[in-house]
Design brief:
Residues 3-128 form the ApaG domain. InterPro entries: ApaG-like, ApaG_domain, ApaG_sf. The protein is mainly β. The chain is 0% helix and 70% strand. It is built from no helices and nine strands. A hairpin with a 4-residue loop joins strand 4 and strand 5 (61-67). The two termini are 20 Å apart. The model has no long low-confidence stretch (mean pLDDT 96).
Amino acid sequence: MVQQVTQGIKISVLTEFDGTFYKNRKMQYAFAYNITIENQGKDTVQLTSRRWVIKDSLNNTVIVEGEGVIGQKPILKPGERHSYTSGCLLFSPFGSMKGHFNMINFESNRKFSVAIPLFNLSAPFSLN
């Protein structure tokens, strides 16, 4: 598990290899990741958007930006957490992801970013 705290918001990440398949005659490697966002601060916050940088070992890079996470914009009171699972496809059995969540503090109306720490994606069959 990879974890990081930014401005009182703790991000924890667990990953899982989901298998391989062919799409458009190219091998794809599927990975799932579970993100837990925990408000360790004293103010209520809301996740408004996210930005991901996804890389594979063949130097392919994909940027993903959008509102919320899996169709939600969770509001977290102090001590609350929100977890979700999503996934990505790579063209190689190794890669990594990192990014950030854009948040708003309801008490101060201040916008801020929370780092999503770099985490690795690797197919177990390709490890020595």
